[in-house]
Design a protein that fits this description.
- This is Aminopyrimidine aminohydrolase.
- The mean pLDDT is 96.
- The protein has one domain (3-20, 33-146, 153-212): Up-down Bundle (Heme Oxygenase, Chain A), CATH 1.20.910.
- By secondary structure, it is mainly α.
- It is globular and about 45 Å long.
- The chain has helices at residues 3-20, 22-29, 34-61, 65-93, 103-118, 121-144, 155-162, 164-182, 186-212.
- Bound molecules: 4-amino-5-hydroxymethyl-2-methylpyrimidine.
- Residues 44, 47-48, 131, 135, 203, 206 line the site of 4-amino-5-hydroxymethyl-2-methylpyrimidine.
- 4-amino-5-hydroxymethyl-2-methylpyrimidine (HMH) binds next to helix 3, helix 6 and helix 9.
Length: 218
């Protein structure tokens, strides 16, 4: 079994919880209140900018030039998606130019930046993998449930994450992670799993915080 296969088995209960979250269930049905999606979008714009920086940093730390190239393309991809969403949803929803990150958003982006800067390289790669893989799984699942939901206002979001272009990036990220895991020690593989699990929990927290429109307590 590859590292990614055994890791997915490990986090399946958490993935099931993510699918059941009200944010994702209501986005799927098109009933998610606009202001919650708007909050999510603004936080996600901040997230994607920081995620792009983390991917760039990982790119610069890679040993093989193939991996340098892949991660710099992932970094550009994150910024391009941010721009595309900016053009679309930002205009229609009237989102602000400068976003103050929520506590959960800041926790998640800083976790990724910290791993990218100071973690072992294979651990840093495992930490960013849920951003690809969980979104792909959630995007595909929601897309598969769209038959009886015409004119879902969240169609562009669903199309982005269930689409072919994103699928290619996810596939490549999975292959690179398995390649790094293969030459890693047992304890390094365990550290990768811990980072993957942590980032997956932070994905859950990001959706939860968006649904609650999380504020700073002070
Ligand atoms: C919080 C979050 N995680 C992952 C993605 C997809 O890269 C996204 N847009 N937002």
């Amino acid at each position: 079994m590859t590292w990614t296969e055994s890791t997915w088995e490990h986090i399946t209960p958490l993935y099931d919880k993510i699918i059941e979250m009200p944010f994702n269930q209501e986005l799927m049905k098109g009933t998610l209140p606009k202001e919650k999606f708007k909050f999510y979008m603004a936080q996600d714009a901040y997230y994607l900018g920081e995620f792009g920086k983390a991917l760039s940093m990982i790119s610069s730390r890679m040993r093989s030039t193939e991996h340098v190239l892949a991660f710099s393309q992932f970094a550009s991809g994150a910024i391009v998606v941010e721009r595309a969403l900016h053009e679309g949803y930002f205009k229609t929803l009237g989102l602000p130019e400068n976003v103050q990150p929520s506590p959960s958003c800041l926790l998640y982006t800083n976790y990724l930046l910290n791993q990218a800067a100071y973690g072992n390289i294979e651990t840093a790669v495992a930490a960013v993998l849920p951003c690809f893989w969980i979104y792909k799984k959630v995007g595909d699942f929601i897309y598969s449930q769209q038959k009886n939901i015409p004119n879902n206002p969240y169609k562009d979001w669903i199309d982005t994450y269930s689409g072919e272009e994103f699928a290619k990036s996810v596939q490549l990220a999975l292959e690179i992670t398995d390649e790094l895991a293969e030459s890693a020690s047992r304890s390094a593989q365990q550290e990768m799993l811990t980072a993957f699990e942590m980032a997956s929990k932070l994905e859950w927290m990001f959706w939860d915080s968006a649904y609650r429109m999380e504020k700073w307590a002070v």
